[in-house]
Design goal:
104 residues; mainly beta; Rieske Iron-sulfur Protein; 3-stranded antiparallel β-sheet; 9 strands; globular; binds FE2/S2 (inorganic) cluster
C-alpha cells in the first residue's frame, strides 16, 4: 500500500485524463472543478480502455468507448448496462502541484 505520484496537477488541466500503470493496476485520473478522481481504467464489462472513452464533466462520469456503459467517477458505479460491476476507485490527493493516488 503506497501513495504513487501520478502527474503534475497542470497536466490534468490540459489533458483531462491521465492513464498510468502501477504493477498490475491500470488506472485513470481526471480532474473536474478542482476535484481529482481516480478509478480503474479497464471497463468491467469487456476489455476497453476507459481513458479513450468520453468524459462528461457535468455528470462526473466516464462513458466506455465500446458499449457505452457510463460510470460514476466518484463511486465507480455503472449507471447503465451492459456493465454491472463497479470500477474500483482510489483515494487521491494533491500536494503542491503533484497528484498522488493511493494504491492498495
Ligand atoms: S466494454 Fe465497456 S461497456 Fe462493454
Amino acid at each position: 500500500m503506497t501513495w504513487v505520484n501520478v502527474c503534475k496537477v497542470d497536466v490534468l488541466d490540459n489533458d483531462k485524463i491521465v492513464a498510468f500503470d502501477y504493477n498490475d493496476k491500470k488506472i485513470l485520473v481526471t480532474k473536474i472543478q478542482d476535484k481529482i478522481y481516480a478509478t480503474d481504467r479497464i471497463c468491467t464489462h469487456e476489455y476497453a480502455d476507459l481513458s479513450t472513452g468520453f468524459l462528461n464533466e457535468d455528470e462526473k462520469t466516464i462513458t466506455c468507448p465500446l458499449h457505452f456503459s457510463r460510470f460514476e467517477l466518484e463511486t465507480g458505479i455503472s449507471q447503465n448496462p451492459p456493465a454491472k460491476i463497479p470500477l474500483q476507485t482510489y483515494a487521491n490527493k494533491m500536494e503542491g502541484n503533484c497528484v498522488y493516488v493511493f494504491i492498495d
